[in-house]
Amino acid sequence: MTKKLELKDHNTLFKDQKYIDQAENKKIFETACSTEEVEKIKDYTKTEEYKEKNFARTDLVINPAKACQPLGAVLAGLGFEKTLPFVQGSQGCVSYFRSHFARHFREPVPTVSSSMTEDGAVFGGMRNLIDGLENCTKMYKPEMVAVSTTCMAEVIGDDLQAFIGNARSEGVISEDFPVPFAHTPSFVGSHLTGYDSMLKAILSNLSEKATIDKEVKTEKINIIHGFDTYTGNFSEMKRILDLFGADYTYLCDYSENLDSPADGEYKYYYGGTKLDEVPKAAQAQGTLSLQKYSTKKTMKYIEKKWKQSVSVSSTPIGITKTDELVKTISEMTGLPIPEELKLERGRIVDAMTDSHTYVHGKRVAMAGDPDLLLGLISFCLEVGIEPVHIVCTNGDKKFLEEAETLLASSPYGLDAKVYIGKDLWHLRSLLFTDPVDFVIGSTHMKFNAKDADIPLVRIGFPIFDRHHMHRYPIIGYQGTLNVLTLIVNTLLDNMDKDADGFNYDVVR
Ligand code: SF4
């Protein structure tokens, strides 16, 4: 008889006595504080006095709600057909980008690094870049390589333009092989800056070489999602545009690359904006961006160089923001708003009415990217949820102003305070000194939620500890329904957890 294979996951494995002993011995070896001391400090971190000290901190960041620049640049590269993101720098950084995306999307992420080590840091990384370009173009046969940099390459001042020029002179790549590049130093900005810089670099590289008359305009419009980690948002937006019957081009569409089918054959590249579509996109009527804070440079470029009307919004979550989106599409295309969308809108308003008794008046804290937060705030105010603490590590003064104006437009926003440049450890303090009913954020927020013993609604990036959430849209009317469902059911789960007797009801 074959023995049943017993595999323990880490939840059960580390409850084995040998691991418990090991942890205890480790404490002795490290002369760790006593459990009582740890608990005492833990309690102190929940006080008003600690919060003051926490907010006075200037030279240390703890759990920022942002990622680094080249991570954003990699995502932008993945949005184009047969494009290989290439990061000039050390392998460790690139492993972080790949693993972050792989854990969130549960897909392999083809991205290469020039593997710079100590000698590169001392003598410069030109050889790494040239050899890297030669290797990756031979091995993975891309049609474009999108080069970004890590901190190391930026600190030593690697000059990408000169290095890529030298690679062409050495015959490693041909003169016309597209190698757009962006300097993406992570000691400034965030993943949004990197995404924006790389997208602009790709669009300018591909459109400026082409002999196309940008003054001649077609009926098409261009769509850019920004740093959007919901593949479901792409399908939803395409469905909306198809309902309109609009003629459109997606610029930077990684939704297939990061949601490829398991059909027995692994391909490096799936989908993406076709490279020859980019010069033609310069002839479109206009370009619509769904994230203003992650496409600043790109949209400025499009407006100036492609001479197009541009429209920028923030993540369209909720009725108001989706109405604005639908109206914008109608104005840009000259097409009427489809009846089906009007019906859909009505259904979502109905669903909001159904659920409002359980969400109305609930206090929430949230953290994330600026455009996502603006969408979430707008949605919360519509259903009577009261945003209280809003942390945007990568938000700027413009975002602060916009968020405050939005919050001031509703009585539900009056208790809110927006914090830019603050991190999740700041937010943790706020959860104890001014408690809320639930939090919205990425997986990184789960520690705060557990400490404060309140539920977490996972929306944002990254989401590592729940499956498939990125496949469900959070934008448009349908996405709004998903956000509402997620929030109300999380609150109901929590209510059931705490309910007993007749309060543990079958009808909610
Ligand atoms: S912050 Fe700099 S060193 Fe750290 S992973 Fe990003 S690029 Fe690498």
From TrEMBL:
**Name of the protein in question:** Nitrogenase molybdenum-iron protein beta chain
Read off the Gene3D superfamilies from this record: Nitrogenase molybdenum iron protein domain (3.40.50.1980), Nitrogenase Molybdenum-iron Protein, subunit B, domain 4 (1.20.89.10)
Q: Which residue intervals define the domain Nitrogenase molybdenum-iron protein beta chain N-terminal in the entry?
A: 7-54
Q: Please tell me the species this chain comes from.
A: Anaerobacillus alkalidiazotrophicus
Alphabetized GO MF terms: ATP binding; iron-sulfur cluster binding; metal ion binding; nitrogenase activity
Reactions listed under catalytic activity: N2 + 8 reduced [2Fe-2S]-[ferredoxin] + 16 ATP + 16 H2O = H2 + 8 oxidized [2Fe-2S]-[ferredoxin] + 2 NH4(+) + 16 ADP + 16 phosphate + 6 H(+)
**Quaternary structure and interacting proteins, as annotated:** Tetramer of two alpha and two beta chains. Forms complex with the iron protein (nitrogenase component 2).
Q: Which cofactor does it need?
A: [8Fe-7S] cluster
